[in-house]
Write a structure and sequence with these properties.
The structure holds two protein chains of two kinds.
Chain A: H1 2-15, H2 20-33, E1 37-41, H3 47-50, H4 59-69, H5 76-92, E2 95-98, H6 101-106, H7 108-120, E3 128-131, H8 134-140, H9 143-148, E4 154-158, H10 163-170, E5 174-179, H11 198-209, E6 218-221, H12 224-236, E7 240-243, H13 247-251, H14 258-262, H15 270-275, H16 281-295
Parallel strand pairs in A: 1-2, 1-7, 2-3, 4-5, 4-6, 6-7
Helix pairs in contact in A: 1-7, 5-12
Chain B: E1 19-22, H1 31-43, E2 47-49, E3 67-69, E4 72-75, E5 78-81, H2 85-92, E6 97-101, H3 104-116, E7 122-126, H4 135-151, E8 156-159, H5 162-170, E9 178-180, H6 187-194, H7 196-200, E10 208-212, H8 221-229, E11 236-240, H9 246-256, E12 262-267, H10 271-280, E13 283-286, H11 298-305, E14 309-311, H12 319-323, H13 337-345, H14 348-366, H15 368-378
Parallel strand pairs in B: 1-2, 1-6, 2-3, 6-7, 7-8, 8-9, 10-11, 10-13, 11-12, 13-14
Antiparallel strand pairs in B: 4-5
Helix pairs in contact in B: 6-11, 8-9, 11-14
Classes of the chains: A alpha/beta, B alpha/beta.
Chain lengths: 306, 383
């Protein structure tokens, strides 16, 4: 009986999955109408937090915590709070990117994340469900630049030193940078050295200072697990948060994910978006589909257009 | 390598000419702890501070001298040292004391040390006057100022600019007791900033203004934002630093900036990133409106890198004196700031001459070698 219920729920959540074209429309609407908005993505890593229970030892959890937080690990109480806040961020997100069914079949961590979200999100919950690769689609299609070029405001939350490039490319009237601690495995690129750690002070400081100066002020966020919580804070405070995660790495020429190696070297640089600046919306979508067809192992596992 | 060329006789703490006492843990990010760091780096003088280093901050500069902190209780921003062996040693020892003010606790410890050893040589490093606020805090600040100035009538005093020297004389401190040693940048920082000059000579004016500092109310970045918006030739404002006013300033910038201008809030940046951004800037502005900002050491970073700086002319503050240049058309009045920004940014010839004058003034008045010479001469250590 339980298995049947789980399948029904999975069908329910899976049936809500929207194509990328729908997500970009929602983002464009939010930016135009200055509506609070958050787009965040759940991958394999978040599975250890979504299923976290105090008192249960989990070696996978330990490894992930070291990756995110280094030597300054959160206490059990802080971890329980992070879990609650992550759950809340997922429930209240405007758009939530989930692993594809193919990813769930390939690796149990993706399945764990998906199943945890099945339990978390009831059928009437808010988020528009889409693919977790939505951040890459926003970049590869050039839609991100198209939406945000010459924006009155742009916030960056990242450990990467890519501000000058972003300013040249996006040309915002005002840019605000918040530097976050890098992942501990990261010895590459031009990340800001010597920045503080998330705990005990880094997170509370950031949560205090990230305040959208205008309703609908957009922020690009790349801060791992804590980035999901920041996205929700920005949405609550009237801003628009887009969790672009490792796309920041691509802009900084740091090939931190396997998919960077499947694409030509320039595909994930900011210059790629600039080359699409004069394309129409449909041309950008076609360009994205063509890139996925050429460079993804299973391009049909992603939903791009109805 | 030049970092280690201390005086040949000074090798141990006991040989150091004095022990330094200050509120913060050097080197830190503030002017006082930067000065104390410079002194101890050169003379290996041990440092005693009231505060421990913040757990999350690493030392921004390398440290080769001994540092200790007194066991203290914090009441808001005031630190009260608890009885300890360290405190007793500090007060009872015969080694001369160099105490950095402003800080009420440091002042009280100086008075106590003088009571215990009336003949001990105690020198006050007078960094800044405090402008008392209103209310109870203001009354306590006035009391501190009164006691500090009274206490200095029997001490040797070092201060950082002729402006502060004159202000001290006006309060009754004898002129012969006061020596002026302008602040300096650490040698390593100076060397790296000087490298920026060669690239800058080929650069065109880009209309870029830089501010570096804590985003706190007295820094008046809000005034700078207004002046920036009112300056036709100003294109880009780089704001480096973090602080309690940051969110408010971001809102102000969003509401008031012109559509053809950019305001970039960079947060707290590394030294390397700071140099990258200094290299992009045409002009620095230090818009503090209180005499608590008495020197503006950050202006030296601009001048060392080859650009002029402008700061308000306030009573009892030397920051306007630090960045004054022969051809800088600047009264130092806040209302004139947009005017001076426009004159400098719209006139490449004037800007080039100001850059030359800033470099020249830095090299001849504020360079590390000059500061070191003054420090050693002051302590009778230079041969």
């Amino acid at each position: 009986m339980k298995a049947i219920d789980a399948n029904l729920l999975r069908d329910t959540l899976e049936s809500r999955r929207q194509p990328y074209s729908c997500v970009r429309s929602h983002l464009a609407d939010a930016l135009r109408d200055r509506k609070p908005f958050s787009l965040l993505r759940i991958g394999d890593g978040e599975s250890v937090i979504l299923r976290y229970e105090q008192g249960h030892d989990d070696p996978d959890l330990e490894a992930h915590l070291r990756l995110w937080f280094g030597d300054q690990l959160p206490t059990r109480r802080q971890l329980a709070r992070i879990r609650r806040q992550l759950n809340g961020a997922c429930r209240k997100a405007t758009v939530l990117g989930l692993p594809t069914q193919r990813q769930c079949e390939l690796h149990p961590r993706y399945r764990t994340s998906f199943e945890a979200l099945e339990q978390l999100l009831n059928p009437r919950s808010q988020p528009i469900i889409t693919d977790a690769a939505v951040h890459r689609f926003l970049h590869l299609s050039g839609d991100l630049l198209n939406c945000l070029r010459k924006s009155p405001f742009l916030g960056l939350i990242t450990c990467r030193s890519i501000v000058d490039e972003v300013v040249d490319c996006f040309q915002p009237r005002q840019l605000v940078l918040h530097i976050v601690p890098p992942e501990q495995s990261d010895n590459l690129g031009s990340r800001v050295a010597g920045s503080c750690s998330w705990f005990p002070d880094g997170w509370s400081h950031l949560a205090n200072v990230v305040r959208p100066p205008l309703r609908g002020a957009p922020y690009l966020v790349g801060a791992g697990l804590m980035g999901k919580l920041i996205c929700e804070l920005i949405r609550q405070r009237g801003g628009i948060a887009i969790d672009i995660g490792s796309v920041f790495d691509g802009w900084d020429a740091v090939r931190s994910r396997a998919y960077f190696d499947r694409y030509p070297p320039e595909s994930y640089r900011l210059t790629h978006q600039e080359t699409l600046a004069n394309y129409s919306g449909q041309e950008r979508l076609n360009h994205l589909k063509s890139l996925l067809d050429q460079h993804e192992a299973a391009p049909t596992s992603f939903r791009i257009e109805n | 390598m030049r970092q280690h060329r201390h005086h040949f006789e000074l090798r141990t703490e006991a040989d150091a000419p004095f022990v330094q006492l200050l509120r913060e843990w050097p080197p830190g990010f503030g002017g006082v702890e930067r000065v104390a760091h410079g002194v101890s780096t050169e003379l290996l003088a041990p440092v005693v501070s009231l505060r421990l280093p913040a757990a999350v901050n690493r030392d921004p500069l390398s440290v080769a001298y001994s540092r200790k902190s007194l066991l203290s209780l914090a009441f808001g921003r005031v630190y009260i040292p608890l009885p300890s062996l360290q405190l007793w040693r500090l007060l009872w020892q015969r080694q001369p004391l160099l105490a950095h003010l402003p800080c009420p606790t440091v002042l009280l410890l100086v008075m106590l040390a003088r009571l215990l050893r009336p003949h001990r040589r105690i020198t006050i490093y007078w960094h800044a006057f405090v402008r008392p606020r209103s209310g109870l805090a203001g009354r306590l600040e006035s009391l501190y100022l009164y006691m500090a100035l009274k206490s200095m009538r029997s001490s040797q005093v070092i201060t950082t600019s002729p402006v502060l020297k004159q202000a001290l004389i006006a309060t009754g401190v004898a002129a012969e007791l006061i020596k002026v040693i302008p602040c300096a940048l650490p040698l390593q920082m100076e060397e790296q900033l000087l490298l920026l000059r060669s690239n800058r000579r080929a650069q065109l004016l880009s209309g870029t203004i830089i501010f570096i500092g804590r985003l706190d109310s007295y820094k008046r970045v809000d005034w700078l934002l207004e002046s920036f918006a009112a300056t036709e030739s100003a294109q880009r404002l780089l704001v480096l630093g973090d602080g309690p006013d940051r969110s408010r300033l971001e809102v102000l910038a969003a509401l008031h900036s012109r559509s053809d201008q950019q305001v970039l809030f960079q947060g707290l940046v590394s030294e390397k990133r700071k140099r990258q951004l200094l290299a992009q800037a045409d002009l620095m502005v230090l818009p503090s409106d209180r005499c608590n900002e008495a020197f503006g050491i950050v202006q030296l970073e601009a001048m060392a890198s080859g650009i002029p700086s402008v700061a308000y002319n306030l009573p009892r503050s030397g920051m306007h004196w630090v960045s004054a240049l022969p051809e800088l058309p600047w009264s130092g009045s806040p209302v004139d700031l947009p005017g001076v920004l426009q004159k400098v940014l719209a006139n490449p010839g004037l800007h080039a001459r100001l850059c030359h004058q800033a470099r020249h003034r830095y090299d001849h008045e504020f360079a590390y070698a000059i500061w070191r010479e003054q420090l050693l001469r002051l302590n009778g250590l230079n041969g």
